[in-house]
Amino acid sequence: MSKTRKDRQFRPLPVPNVELDGLFGARQDAICDSTAETLLDRCVEAGMVRAIDTSQPSPGIVIPLQPWAGSTQMFWDSDLGKSIETIAYSLYRRPNPKLEASADAIIDMYEKMQDKDGYLNAWFQRVQPGRRWTNLRDHHELYCAGHLIEGAVAYYQATGKRKLLDIMCRYADYMITVFGHGEGQLPGYCGHEEVELALVKLARVTGEKKYLDLAKFFIDERGREPHFFTEEALRDGRDPKAFIQKTYQYNQAHEPVREQTKVVGHAVRAMYLYSGMADIATEYNDDTLTAALETLWDDLTAKQMYVTGGIGPAASNEGFTDYYDLPNESAYAETCASVGLVFWANRMLGRGPDRRYADIMEQALYNGAMSGLSLDGKTFFYENPLESAGKHHRWTWHHCPCCPPNIARLLASIGSYMYAVADDEIAVHLYGESKAKVEIAGAKLELAQTTRYPWDGAIRFEATLDKPARFALSLRIPEWAEGTTLAVNGEAVDLTAVTVDGYARIEREWRSGDRVALDIPLTARALFANPNVRQDAGRAALMRGPLVYCVEATDNGAGLNGITLVGDPAAAKGTEIPDFDGAIALDVAVQRDQAEDWGKSLYRTSPPASHDATARFIPYHLWDNREPGEMLVWIRAGHRARGV
Amino acid sequence: MSKTRKDRQFRPLPVPNVELDGLFGARQDAICDSTAETLLDRCVEAGMVRAIDTSQPSPGIVIPLQPWAGSTQMFWDSDLGKSIETIAYSLYRRPNPKLEASADAIIDMYEKMQDKDGYLNAWFQRVQPGRRWTNLRDHHELYCAGHLIEGAVAYYQATGKRKLLDIMCRYADYMITVFGHGEGQLPGYCGHEEVELALVKLARVTGEKKYLDLAKFFIDERGREPHFFTEEALRDGRDPKAFIQKTYQYNQAHEPVREQTKVVGHAVRAMYLYSGMADIATEYNDDTLTAALETLWDDLTAKQMYVTGGIGPAASNEGFTDYYDLPNESAYAETCASVGLVFWANRMLGRGPDRRYADIMEQALYNGAMSGLSLDGKTFFYENPLESAGKHHRWTWHHCPCCPPNIARLLASIGSYMYAVADDEIAVHLYGESKAKVEIAGAKLELAQTTRYPWDGAIRFEATLDKPARFALSLRIPEWAEGTTLAVNGEAVDLTAVTVDGYARIEREWRSGDRVALDIPLTARALFANPNVRQDAGRAALMRGPLVYCVEATDNGAGLNGITLVGDPAAAKGTEIPDFDGAIALDVAVQRDQAEDWGKSLYRTSPPASHDATARFIPYHLWDNREPGEMLVWIRAGHRARGV
Known about the structure:
The structure is a homodimer.
Chain A: E1 11-12, E2 18-20, H1 22-46, H2 48-51, H3 76-93, H4 97-113, H5 122-126, H6 141-159, H7 163-178, H8 195-206, H9 209-221, H10 228-235, H11 267-284, H12 287-303, H13 335-348, H14 355-369, E3 387-388, H15 403-412, H16 415-418, E4 419-422, E5 425-428, E6 434-440, E7 443-451, E8 458-465, E9 469-476, E10 485-488, E11 491-493, H17 495-498, E12 499-500, E13 503-510, E14 515-519, E15 524-529, E16 539-544, E17 547-552, H18 553-556, E18 563-565, E19 573-576, E20 584-593, E21 603-604, E22 610-619, E23 631-632, E24 635-637
Parallel strand pairs in A: 5-9, 18-24
Antiparallel strand pairs in A: 1-4, 2-6, 3-23, 4-5, 6-7, 7-8, 8-14, 9-13, 10-11, 10-14, 12-13, 15-16, 16-17, 16-24, 17-22, 17-23, 18-20, 19-20, 20-22
C-alpha cells in the first residue's frame, strides 16, 4: 500500500506538537531562561529597535561600513526576525508575558514603519531611502524580508496573533508586483538566499500558492543569462566587475541552479538556497531540482564537510574553497552554516525518509551547530574550529550577530526536525526523550519516546491512539549503528527485512499501548579521513553515536597534539561528566609525548619520549564550557590504532 | 697569546676581497645576469624613479594608502637604496656599464632632490612636504635613510664614486642636528629600525665616530619613558592609542633595549634592531648590549624559529606570536626576516667566532633566506611557508617589494659573511668554493677554499702568503657535524683539543703552501621539534648538512601528507638533481597512504591502506623551481623512525 518515494510528501511536525525533555529539553530550557531574552537585550543594545522606531529620528549609520557588503546594520531586520522566531518557539515551552510584550512592541514598530505599498526595511526606509531594489546582489533586502517572514509565521503559530503575519503578507504581495518578467518588473533574486524558504513557510501557513510561485520564480531565475546582477549594476551605474567577491559563485548565482553540481561560495547562502530548492522540489514534485540537490549533497558531504558537520572552511568568503581542504585550527565553519545544513538535510527528507540525509542532519546538529551555544545559553561561537591553541572562546555578542538567534531558533524548534508525517506514515528522524502528537490515517496518535539518547542507545516508543489505525512507523537506523535491534510489543523484528533507505519501516495496524523497543549500541569508534584531506593525515577523530568527541586541556593538561591514540577506542570507558546534564565522557588509552624532559632546544635528532596514559574525551559541542584552554578533535593515530 | 673573547673585534671581510665559485658563485651569476637589472626595471615600472625626478611633477600617491602605515610608496627610497647596493656588489663580479650608468642617473636625481639642509626623502619632499619628522613611529624616514646609506657605502666601495656617499653624509650630518636632547632636538628614533646598522657602516667607511654616536643614541633612546612615540603623537594632534598595531612591542620600543628579553613584534624590525645593537656592542665593547642580545638570541632560536631559519609566523603583524607557535602552511616567515637573521647572526660574531651564531646564520641563509630567490634570479618569495597545498608560487614583483633586493644584496655580498678577521685571526664561518684575500699579522694572505660544499663535505684550504706569519685560522665545526676530521699539511689534528666555541682554532706560523683538509660528513638526519610545537607533533624534518629538505609533488605526486618516514634517513641515497647545479636530492624509504582505493566516502572507520615507497627529498630553498605543486617539509614520522 505504500506509495513510491517520488510521490510522498513528508512535512515536519509543527513545533507545538512535540514536547521535549532530555538533552534537547535542557537546551530549550536554557533558551527560555536566557537566550531568548539575551537576544532581545542585545538587539536593543546594538540599536536595532531604535532603528525601526519611527517616533525617533533615523539612527543613520551606527557601525562602520564594511567594504564588501555595506554594513551589518543593513541586516538588522534579519536579526530581529530570527529573535522573534526564537521567542515564538520559547513561548510554547514557557509562557513569558514580558518577552511576548517586547516582541509585540517590535511588531507594532514594524507596522508603523511599513510603507503604504507594503515595503518594509529598516535600512532602505530610514538610512538610504533612495536605494530600494537598486542592488539585490549586495543589499540583503529580500534576505531581511525572509527572516521577518519566518518570524511572523512562528509568532502567529505560537501566539495566534496575526499582526506580523499580515504585515509580511502585505510585503510579499508587494514583492509579487515587483518581481517578474512583466513590463517594469525585476527578473531578479537576492544575493543572499533566504526569502525562498521563507515564502514556502508563508504559503504553507496561509495556504496561498502565490507565495510558493514567487519562491519558485526566485529559484528558477537564479544564475540565468543575461545575468541579473550584471544588468542591475549597469542600470545602477556600477561596474559589474567591481564585485569584491569576484565571482557569482559566491552567491551560487554563477549558473542556473539546476545545472549546479559543485557546492561553492558563501556557505550559509548555499544552505539556504538548497533548503528553498528542496522545499520547492517537495511542493511541486520537481525532480529536476531533486536531481541537482542530490548531486550537490554528495559534493558537499563527500568532499567538503568537516566531521562535525561544519562547512565552509575559509573566513575570506565565509565559505567553500577546494575539495578536501579542511583546515582544523583556522576552520571558519560558521555556526549558521551548520544550522543551514540541518535545514537543508531536513528538507531533503520531504520526499521520504532516507538516512543519507538524516544521518548528516543529526551529525551537523549535535556537533557543528550545537557547539555554537553555551550550556547556559548565554554565550556563542561564530566560528567552530576543530583545534584551538587556547585562544578561541565563546563571546557574548558579535558585530555580525547572525549565529546566536540562528542556533537558538533551531534548538527551540528542534521537535519539528525529529518527526515528520505523510498521509499514512510517521518518520522518526532523530531520537530523544519526547512526546509527539499527530493526526495520522484518521486517528489521533500520541507517540511517547523514552530514552537517554544520545548518552544511551536504549529507545522505547509507546503509542496512544484514539482508535486503531493502519500506518507506517519509520525509524532511522543510523549507518554507524552496527548491532542495532528492534522489537515490537516484545517481538524481535528482522531489521534487514524491513529497512528501506536506512529506516526500519513498520507498517501495521497500530493500537493504543503498542510498544517498540529500539536498541542502538553506542560504542566509541575512531574515524579516519579520506587521504585527500591533508590536514587529517595520520589522525583519527573519535565518535560515539552521532557525537564527535574532542580532548580539552582542562581534562588533559596542555600539549594535546602530543596525544596518540593507541588500540581500539571501542574499549573506552564512558563516564558521566559532572554538571553536564548526564553527558558521557570517554576515557581512552593513549600515548603521550613528554614535553617536560625534552630540554631547551627547539629541534633535535631524537624524537620525544612518550608514555602510556589515559585521555579524557568530551563531546565536541560541549567544549569551552569550563576552564579555557586548548582543544583538539583530530588526534594523532598510532600504528596500533591504524592497524599498521 | 690569544686575547680573551671580550676584547676581540672581528669584522667581516670587504665584499671585493672574496671571490666566489660553486653554489654561491652560481647565485651571484644569476644576480649579475638577471636580478640586479630586474630590480631596477621594476623600480622604474613602479614609478620609483619618476618619484625622485625633480624635473617631473610629483607623482602624488601612486598606490592606495594602507590603513596601517601609510603607503608602501612611502618606503620607495629603501627599495632604490637596496637596489643600488645590489648593483654595487654585482659590479665587483661583473662590470656592467649600462647598469652602472642607471645607478649613476638615480644618484644624480637624489643629488638634485636633496634639500639644502641635507634632508632627503622622496615622500616627504614630494608628496607630503609638510609632514617631515612628524611621525617617526609610522613614517619610515630614518629607515629609508638607512637603506640609502647602505647603498651609498656599497656603491662607493664598488665604484670609488663618492657622490651618493657625500649626499648621505650631508644627510647624516643634518640628522645629528635634528636628534638629541638639546633644545629643539628630537629625542626620537625610527619606528622601523635600520638606520642604526647603516650608520655603523657609514662610520666604518668614513672613519667618522659621530655616526656611531648617532646610531648609539637611537639605540639608547629606544623604549625609554616618557615614550617618544606617545609624546610625538600628542604634539602632532594624534591619539597615541590610535595605533593600528596596538603595542610598541610591534616596534621593539616597549621598553629600553637592554631590558628586553623576549623577541616580539615585526620580525624584520627586530632583526635590524638587534643587528645595530650587535654592531654597537662590538664598536663600543658594550657588554650590557651583548648580554641583552644573548638572551634575545636564545629566546628566538629556542622558542620562535622555524627549522628553516624562517621567523615571524604571523601575517597580521609580519612577526612574532606566541612561543612555539610555528604553523607551517600559513607561515609568514618573510624572506627579509631570514635575511635579517643572517645580518644579526653575522654581527654576533663580531666579538669572536661562536658556532651558536654561525650555525644559525648558515641555517637561515641556506633555507629561509635563499628560498626567496629563484634559480634564474628572476622570481621571488615574500612568504616562505613550510607546507603548500600547491598554490604558493614565486612572483615577479610585490606591492611591497622589500624582499627581492634584500635577498639579492645578501647573496651578492655573501663573501663578507663567510670570512671575518681580527688582528691575528681569520675565521671561516661558512664553507664554499672561494678565494679570500686579507692582510693579517702583517702579511698578505690569500686563502683558497676548494670544495663542493654544501653538496659534499670535503673542504680543502691552501694558504698563499707573501711571508710566513703567526695567526690563528678558526674553522667552524657545525654542531650537527658528527665525525668531522681535520688535518694540517696531511697531519691529523685532534679536534677536541683545538675546538673553542665550536671553532677549530689552529694557531701557528703559517707558510705559503700550507694545506688544511676539513672533512664534514654530510649524512641525512631526521629532526624532531620540541613537543610544544603543536604543528610538528608526530612529524620529522630531514636535513643534510645545513640544508633543510622537503618533498615536492613534481617528484612524488600529490598527497604529500600521506608520506610517512620509516627507518633511519642516514641510509638515504643522494642523487644529483638534473639542471640544478649539482644539487643533491635524497631518496628515502617511506610508507605512503593509498588514496586511490579509499572509495568515495569522506570519513570511515578504517584507516587508509599504505604501501612501501621511496620519496624524493630536495633542498627546501630549491622548491618551486620546476612544475608547481604541493610541498611539505615536516613529514609524518612513523613509529620506526621515531623509535617507538
